[in-house]
Amino acid sequence: MNYFPDEVLEPVFDFITSHKDRNSVSLVCKSWFKIERYSRQRVFIGNCYSTCPERLIARFPGLKSLTLKGKPHFADFNLVPHDWGGFLYPWIEALAKSRIGLEELRLKRMVVSDESLELLSKSFVNFKSLVLVSCEGFTTDGLAAIAANCRFLRELDLQENEVDDHRGHWLSCFPESCTSLVSLNFACLKGEINLGALERLVARSPNLKSLRLNRAVPFDTLEKLLMQAPQLLDLGTGSYVPDPSSEAYNRLKSAIQRCKSIRSLSGFLEVNPRCMSAIYPICANLTFLNLSYAPGLSGNELTKLIQHCRKLQRLWILDYIGDKGLGVVASTCKELQELRVFPTDPLGAGNAAVTEEGLVLISAGCPKLNSLLYFCQQMTNAALITVAKNCPNFICFRLCILDPIKPDPVTNRPLDEGFGAIVESCEGLKRLSLSGLLSDQVFLYIGMYAKQLEMLSIAFAGDSDEGMLYVLNGCKKLRKLEIRDSPFGNAALLEDVGKYETMRSLWMSSCEVTLGGCKTLAEKMPSLSVEIINESQQMEFSLDDRTVDKMYLYRTLVGHRKDAPEFVWIL
Amino acid sequence: MEGSVAYENDLHLKATELRLGLPGTDEREEHAVSNVRNNKRPLQEGGANGKSDSQNETAPPAKAQIVGWPPIRSYRKNNFQSKKNESEGPGIYVKVSMDGAPYLRKIDLKVYTGYRELLQALENMFKFTIGEYSEREGYKGSDYAPTYEDKDGDWMLVGDVPWEMFITSCKRLRIMKGSEARGLGCGV
C-alpha cells in the first residue's frame, strides 16, 4: 500500500489534525499506523479509564498536548460521589518519568491534587498551557507552583472549578521574567488576590489576549488593567461597580475606546447596572457575550446592551431576560449560532421568566442557530415543531423544563411530537437532552431519525424497555447515553450487549436494572467495565433482584481500574 | 381529596410505599423523592409535609428538591445560592411601610442580589406594581414609588445609587402612594 516513503507521508499527515481523522488514518495499515503514531502530537482521551498512561506513552512518544476527561457527565449535577475517581496524579507521575515533552494539558471533571500540579510544574520544561474545566481537589497552592515553575507558561485557564482558595499569593508567584502569558482566566476563584501583582503581571505580558478576572478584582483595578492591555481579544470583568461620578469611571470609558480588539466579553459578577453604557462602544464587534453570572442586571439593561451587539455569534444569559428580551435578541443578533439561557433561580417557584414563546422568537430571527441550552418554565409541541422548521441546523439541542415531567400545558399531552419534529428536521443533530413529560414514542422517533446522534441525556422519561431499545437499535453513532429516573430495566440493558463496545459509556441511575442484570452484562462483555455505585450501603452483593441505584459502564482496553473506592463495585 | 386526612394520621406510610403500579395512576399522591426507585413522578405540588395541594392553590407550590435537578453545574448553583446564604454577619433588616397598609413589614436586604429582586419581593409582599425605573422620571407607570431613608435622614428614591451603596445606607423603606409619589418623579 505504500507508494511513498515514510518521509513523504509524514508531512502529509501533519495536515491531518482532527482526532477522528487521525484515528482513521492509523487504521489503514501497519505502516500508516507507525507513521501516524510517531507524528501525533495531540491526543484526546474521552474517558481516562479507557486506557492507561503506560499505553499512551508507549504509542505516542511525540505527545505534546493531552486532553483527559474523568468523571461521568452527571457528576456535574452531584450524582457521583466526590471520591469516585478520575485522579490526575498517576498520569503526571507516569509522564514525568517518561521522555514525553508535555506542553499542554486540558482536563475535564478530574480530581487534580496540589501534588499533581506541583509535579507537573517541575517535570516539563516547555509546559505552556493548562486548562481545567469542572475539576476539583486543588488549592491556590497548586496554582502557585504552576505560576512559579512554568517558565514559558502561555495559558492558565480555570473554568468553573471548585478551588480551595487559601487567599495566598499565587499570583505573585509569577516571576518577573515571565512575560509569555497569552491567556489568564481565574474567574472561578473566590478569594482575594494581590492586585498590585496582577497589574504588574499584565503590564509585562505584551501577548496577553485573554483575561478573565474574579469577583475580588474591583473596578479600579479593572480600569488600570485595560489601560495596560488594549490588545485584549477576550475580557472577563470581575466586579463592575463603579462610582459613576468618579475619575476612574471616566478613565475606563476612554480605555474601553482603545480596546478595539475585544470580541468576547464576560463577568460582571457584581454590577452597577447604571454603568453598562460604558461598555456599549465594544459591543458592536462582540462575537461572544457571557452574562450568565451577572444576576445584578435587570432584563431591561440586558436587552439594551444586547441591542448594540449585532455581530453576536454566541450568547449566554440568565432567564430574567424574559421572552420579550429574547425577542430583542432575535431581531438584533442575526448571526447567532449558540444560545444558552440559564435559570436565575434554579429552585424557583414559578418565577422563571422564559417559556416556549422566547424560543420560537429566537428560532424565527436567528436561522443560523445550531446550538441551544434552554432552561424554561414550559414548552409546547407546537413551539418545538415551529423551532424545528425554522432551524434545521441544530447540532446540539438541550432543553430543560424546570419541572421535569411537565406536559404541553396547552394540550396536556407529552412532548413526544415536539422532540420528534426536532430530530426529524435536524439531520445533523449530534447531541440531545430531553425533558418534560415523554412516553416511549419520543424514543421511537429518536431511533428513527437521529442518525448522527452521539450523545443523549434522558431524565424521567419513557414507559418501558421499548423506549431504550428504540434508541440502542436506531442510533448507530451513539457514543454516550446517560439515563436517570426512567423505567428501563434488564431487558433493555441486555438485548444487545455488543452495542456498548461501540460506545464510550452508559450511565443509568434510579432505573430498573437489577444487580443480577448488571452481573450478567459484565460476564458477557469482558471488554467493558461495569461499575455499581452503592452509596447507601444497603445492598448486599448476593441480592441479585435488587435494583441498582447507579450504574456506569464503559469500554476499556485495560480492564478494571485499581483505584476504585469502597462504595464502587466493579463487576 | 379524600385521602389527605388519612395521610396526616397515618405516619405517611402510603407516601413512602414502593409500588409496582403504572406511573401516573396516583398522580396526586405524595412521594418522597430522593431515594424512591419505583416512582418516576417527582413531587410536584404541595410540600413534603403531607398537606394536599388542592387547597393551596393561592400559595406558590413548594417544589420538592430532586437530587441533581435542574441539571446545572454545582459551581453555578453554589454561585447564586451563596449570595443568598451569605451569613457572614447578621442580615440587614429594615422596616418597610406602605401608605395605607395597617402594619409594617421587615425585610433582610442581604437576601437580594439587586434592585430587581428587591422590587419584585416588595411587589409580592404588598400586592402592587411598581412602574418602570428611569433616571429622568423615577418610577413611571404606576401610583407607587419606593423610597428609603438614608443615613442623613433624607428620603431618597430607590434605585439611583449602586446596590452595594444602597444597602449600606438604607435605614428604612417606604412605599409612597398617590400624588406624593408622583411629585417625587417630577414628571406626569
Automatic annotation (TrEMBL), chain A:
One GO cellular component term: nucleus
Pathway: Protein modification; protein ubiquitination
Domain F-box: residue ranges: 4-45
One GO molecular-function entry: auxin binding
Keywords from the named record: Auxin signaling pathway, Developmental protein, Nucleus, Ubl conjugation pathway
Principal location listed in the UniProt entry: nucleus
A Pfam cross-reference name: Transp_inhibit
GO biological process, one term: SCF-dependent proteasomal ubiquitin-dependent protein catabolic process
Top-rank taxon: Eukaryota
Protein name: Protein AUXIN SIGNALING F-BOX 2-like
Gene: LOC111293486
UniProtKB/TrEMBL annotation, chain B:
Annotated GO CC locations: nucleus
Superkingdom of this protein's organism: Eukaryota
One Pfam family cited in the UniProt record for this chain: AUX_IAA
All residue ranges annotated as the PB1 domain in the record: 91-178
Record keywords, A-Z: Auxin signaling pathway, Nucleus, Repressor, Transcription, Transcription regulation
PROSITE patterns, A to Z: PB1
Record's subcellular location: Nucleus
Family: Belongs to the Aux/IAA family.
SUPFAM superfamilies listed in its UniProt record: CAD & PB1 domains
Organism of this sequence: Durio zibethinus (Durian)
Gene: LOC111307362
GO biological process, alphabetically ordered: auxin-activated signaling pathway; regulation of DNA-templated transcription
Major location (coarse): nucleus
Lineage: Eukaryota, Viridiplantae, Streptophyta, Embryophyta, Tracheophyta
Transmembrane segments: none
Identification of the protein by name: Auxin-responsive protein
Function of the molecule: Aux/IAA proteins are short-lived transcriptional factors that function as repressors of early auxin response genes at low auxin concentrations.
Residues covered by region (Disordered): 16-65
Assembly behavior: Homodimers and heterodimers.
